[in-house]
Write a structure and sequence with these properties.
The protein is an all-alpha fold and about 300 residues long. It is built from 15 helices and no strands. It starts with 13 loop residues before the first helix and ends with a helix.
Length: about 300
């Protein structure tokens, strides 16, 4: 699926983990003089903010993510309608599944198919977990939304504050569907995920510096009867919005358009462009770019096997 936008739900440094651990302890100390829900709300705000930290060390991000996600998930269960935290948690599960679980499955496929299958099953479960957290918060903000989506109704427009959760719900849903080819019920949700993505698109097509446009392109190329021309328009818009800074936009177009078309030359050229992207120090896209740069390098190495 398309690359994630530049708001990874992964802590940046070890000291952030320490601070995250101290926050709930402080909250416990304050509980005698402040309403419990107020304390939980402040904790949710803090965790959601930490989930937007920049990080360029993939190993540190991978090792830090489980602690952050488990802590944030426990708070989110107490505050299920907290949209910023739901987006951070859904984004964290989605990126962790994509970057560290599904990608490892792809790498192992040629040498250990059973291990790859186990990893894909785990990635699917993580995608589902992230999606459900985001959908629950969206439902709290807009009761009846999921029913309207599933019955192919016409939900009213999303509020802008719902956009991050809507994006991550759709992105996680797409990841889940991509790993569920043997599960007809899950695959049948593709139109629902697409409709949610279109609702997000109606709010802000530029969301995520091209990430939402990439997701629209990926869904367009994946749906039955999808238009390659429309998919290309979405991918080109993602590249324009990324202004040469979004590695994932190049990778998404390579995998979503060039590879299905059997165009190896375009595939290789796009991946080489992805690898040539230089990050601006302190950019919030550093982590997502690092993830996609690693995938681009692997795709180039295996290009002969893909065509």
């Amino acid at each position: 699926m398309a690359s994630p936008p530049s708001t990874p739900a992964l802590p940046a440094q070890a000291r952030r983990l320490t601070r995250a651990l101290l926050v709930p302890l402080l909250a416990l100390g304050l509980s005698a003089c402040a309403p419990r829900q107020m304390v939980l709300g402040e904790l949710a705000d803090s965790l959601a903010s930490q989930g937007q930290s920049a990080e360029d060390d993939l190993d540190l991000a991978r090792d830090a993510a489980p602690f952050y996600l488990k802590l944030s998930e426990s708070v989110l269960r107490e505050q299920p309608g907290h949209l910023p935290l739901s987006a951070a948690v859904a984004g964290g599960f989605t990126q962790y599944a994509y970057a560290f679980v599904a990608f490892e499955a792809d790498r192992l496929e040629a040498t250990d198919a059973r291990a790859a299958a186990r990893l894909r099953a785990r990635a699917a479960a993580l995608y589902r977990r992230g999606r459900d957290h985001a959908l629950q918060a969206l439902e709290a903000a807009k009761p009846g939304l999921r029913h309207q989506l599933e019955t192919q109704g016409s939900p009213s427009a999303l509020d802008r504050k719902m956009l991050p959760s809507a994006y991550w719900a759709a992105a996680a849903w797409g990841g889940l569907i991509s790993l569920s080819k043997d599960d007809p019920d899950t695959v049948a949700d593709l139109p629902v995920a697409i409709q949610l993505t279109r609702l997000a698109w109606a709010v802000d097509p530029a969301y995520g510096d091209g990430a939402l446009a990439s997701l629209m392109g990926s869904f367009e190329s994946a749906r039955p009867g999808g238009s390659p021309q429309q998919a290309q328009a979405y991918f080109d818009e993602a590249l324009r919005l990324g202004a040469g800074r979004n590695v994932g936009a190049f990778v998404a177009k390579a995998e979503g358009l060039a590879q299905p078309a059997g165009d190896k030359a375009a595939f290789v050229a796009l991946l080489q462009q992805a690898l040539a992207v230089q990050d601006t120090p302190g950019s919030p896209m550093v982590l997502s770019n690092a993830v996609m740069r690693r995938r681009a390098a692997w795709l180039l190495e295996t290009a002969d096997d893909l065509f």
